[in-house]
Amino acid sequence: MPEQTHPHDPFFPFWEDPSSFLAVWLTTADQTALFQRQPNELCFADNANDFPVITVDAKQKYQVIEGFGFSLTGGSAMLIGRLSAADRKALLRELFLPDEDGIGVSFLRLSIGASDLSERCFSYDDRPAGQSDFELAHFDIEAGDREVIPLLREILSINPEIKIMATTWSAPTWMKTNQSFVGGKLRSDCYAVYAAYLVKYLQTMRNRGITVHAITPQNEPLNEKNEPSMVMEAGEQAEFIKNHLGPALSTAGLADVELFCWDHNCDVPEYPLEVFADAKARRYLSGSAWHLYGGDISALSEVHRAYPDMKLYFTEQWVGIDGQFGGDSMWHMKNVLIGSLRNWSRVVLEWNLASDPFCRPHTPGGEARCVGALTIGEEVARNVAYYVIAHAAKFVRPGSVKIYSDEHEFLPNVAFLTPEGYIVLIALNDEAEARFFTIRFQGKSAVATLPANAVATYVWRAV
Question: What sections of 160-213 are H helices per DSSP?
């Protein structure tokens, strides 16, 4: 029978019955394969063997997936924005389209004002020492990181369905107890004006054609050392949300902007639990956001058990310059990607989208060792975080649902059913020897091999 094409089926262009076959994309720690489609597809058949089995069951459904991506820091936008128009367009299409050559990033995180990966500290309403601006008359969205909005517009022209989340690293210094961008707390008499400041940011972005879908009021609220940073205890965050930010969003007609608490590590699940325990604060909240610089990813499930109606987003994890591709990629695949998804996360974001070869830019006291998903110098290099996100984002499109797959200590994995009717299985072998295993679905079996220290994404039709 002659080969037939399926023009609306980008993963299976030559098969009459794609439900019998599994396409495979592979990344290995030794970089011999980097998100590379394998030439020999697998086939479901009636066979028996003694290999470990990963059973996938699309009837057992869990959380809906909302997206995968990175933080578009001010530094990232600056570096990408300075590429030639042709190179920039090609790179953005690669990043944000899930076509044959793209990886399909579907979610971005922004900083409200500066992050530590901006060139300098700033807010959108900085005033000279001793002055304040309770009317926000001096609010200026162009105060810094000026490349972000133009680049976002370009991204949205390529993929208008991108979802955007934003968070602050610090309030304007005149609102803070120590009048500094580093540490300090929000002054009690500035709760209302800080809420108005966040509302004004959201409104101004919408006026520029950019809808921010979700916010957290403070990045890493227990981190007092970063530049910029601001401390906000759990009780303070609950009070700010229930008495100021939540009502301000409603009054401004921004109730459609989802509000998340925490946005910090897995070692203090007590923080979001305390915020959620305040029923008046919880009525304004959609969920909690998480990093993994401390604690265990299972903390997400602990919070889910207590408040199953609250969403979980994994919003940040960095890759350091002193690491190695193999070790870092395997750890991130296991803990950040597979780990957070098996613990109810709906979103998975790696940290910085782009840096230069010297991990710049960053603020003077910001993190100076952070490798971007891309390194932009004379050429564009793709790094650990790029491949971590690619293995999910290209295939697990927004609206996909996590489904059941057997849990294995030596074969960490996670599976999904997509809106288009695909099954996607991501499986990891972080051991020193190759592993044979069986994928079982609807009574059929396919034998797979994962090389040592490798991750693979398997894609097939559900019906």
Answer: 191-207
